User: Fold this.
Amino acid sequence: MAVGDSTRLEIIFNTKRYRNKMTKKPRIETNEGPPHKSVTIITNVVARPDSTYPLIIKPYKLDISQFSPTKVRDEMKFNITNVSDKDLTVTLISKPEGVFDLQLPDRVEAGKSAQGILKLRPDAIETSFEKSFTIELNDDKTSRFTIPVKRTRRTPGEPAKKATAGHGH
Assistant:
């Protein structure tokens, strides 16, 4: 990269064996020489995602796997329930490029639910992957929720294809 250029990095933090508050500092090395750079990821890994606050997302993992050779599964609906006493706005913070699109409600009223829709991009229909997307709320803590999205693409008699991208949970 030329001086002043930038690029997007994908940092994969697999939370499967972690619980509660975690801090990770992945190191970014360049050929520029020391000192190496790092970013800080601070997260609260929730063991029971059905009891999160101020939102509950169901299902909390979006599995859009396809095992039928004839019926294309390229869309999945999910519910976002506001369990707080304040209306919340929902803002998409990040999602993988070129894999899926999202329709999210702009806001979810206090004590109510709204629906989100994940739709695979045409280029991703034949792939397997493990990715995630992150939303942010306008609550007092500016809470963020990262929702894992998995797709296994297999037809009967064919071995499962390994996911081609990392675990973005």
Summary: The radius of gyration is 18 Å.
